[in-house]
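Hello,

Our lab assistant flagged a job as stuck in the queue for most of the afternoon. It eventually completed. Since we weren't sure the result was trustworthy after the delay, we are filing this so someone can double-check. Below is the sequence as submitted and the structure that was eventually returned. Let us know if re-running is recommended.
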Amino acid sequence: MHDTLRLAVASDVRLLPQVMLRVGERGTAQEVEADLIVVDPAHGVTVVEVKGGTMLFDPGRNLWRRREAAGQEVRDPVAQVKRALAIVKRHLDQSRFPVEAIPFRWVVATPDCTLDSPGEGLLPEELLWDARALGEMAGALARTQGKPDGGTTPIGEVRAEAIARALRGRAVEGTPSDAARVAAHEQQVVALTESHRNVMHQFLRHQRVLVRGAAGTGKTMLALEVAALHASQGARVLVTCWHKLLATHLREGLLNRLSTFGSPAADDVTDDPTGRVVVTDLASLAGGAEPPAGADPREWFYEVLPDRLSPDATGGPFDVIVLDEAQDPGELWHLALAGLSVDGGRWFAFADRQQDLFGTAPALKDFVDVAHELRENFRNTRQIAAFATWFGDVETDCLTGDGPEVVKVAVPADRIVGRTTEIAKKLRRDEGYRPDQVAAIWLFHNPWKHDPDGLVAQHRGGEMVTTNSAAFKGMEREVVVLGIDLRPGLPLDDLKRLVYTAATRARSKLVVVADPDQLRQAELYILAGLFKRSSPSTPG
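-- returned structure --
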């Protein structure tokens, strides 16, 4: 939408994508993300709310849905854009701009579909930009700008520049390289938001809390925060998860967190199950990282090992238990972990049902006093989050802004594994990414399948990671090249969860390698369609 509009407007029109604004005082502050703000010296300020996918609108119930996600209800874009416009006005008013003299407008854009306007009172035709508007963007903008909500006086070049600076705070025009856009995205450090502070209050008020959230919503950050808080207060703490790689990441993260504010508890962080601040994977906690020869792996990990877990194996019970990626273990593991808690102990679980790759259907609600939902994505660029939304069922607000477009590379099925690695290496060579910024991930192929310690060493050694979607759960890298290596017979919902999980490992740049014909055979029609709409390209 941004690029199409840029070609249609005069050079003095400022286009501000993904503008984050916060107005008000502490305790009453309001935050908003405007998808796009158009600052036109001749016509004023227009706020645009963009909704991707095929939108469906029920005027009788005033409900918006997305067809591709089985009719999933989405937030009302008209209400969203009106709220964004109100906060834009308030922000400019607080910045001492005469808002009564500035023409303001709002628009809802549905660039991926055609949509009949619900009409006056809901969404007038001139305030709707659907797929038809993309072909005549200048005309669509002219119709919108002909219907101001305020005055009609042109704001002029000087005031337009001042308004743009007040809203964005920096220049936004130009076409930087993908590497530069990745670097800019990586510099956007998002502190604890109001929603995270609310969760921390739940941690203090309740003994057992379940935090649900899509990928990138800050679950692992909160897990480390609550573990650090209780470890610093002298509690015996267990932080655990399903995979050894993530456990290593959590252990290093907790150590760094405690060291940052000088807590002596940093000296107690260990993977020894009998320690005071223990961070390890569940299998290692139970003393059996690999099944014996001839044993059924699923039975070993989901039935045998939980039965071995007891306070005797861990040197006694824990005051606080933190379980990350809690959708992975089954009910037997949850019962076993509950048995490691002291009477009145605290239990904090962090889960994303969209990443349940093992079909364990955990009954987490039976183990908690209160559940909290996180709805803001702090990890992925808007482009990556939008791509992942096609395969998930939860819509989140993406707060970290723009980045490179998701690149699709079509190759024959038998070349997917090799080509994925080649592209990852080419990106490192041509765009200058460090090895520790890049991961080559497949849905199934895993060079470290029988050597999880090798994967941990690869990650800790700062090398380019090569593994599959399941083994890299909970982890992330700036750049991910994803190979869609399909296997016959897997249910469509399971495939979509694998794609969602793998794609959201990318923070700033995502390249997808697949065989479009194979995608259609697997009924991944949305992904096949995305390949069809994009021109063949080779990244780097």
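-- support follow-up --
The delay was a queue issue, not a problem with the job. The result is valid. The chain has a mean pLDDT of 82. Residues 77-94 form the longest helix (18 residues).
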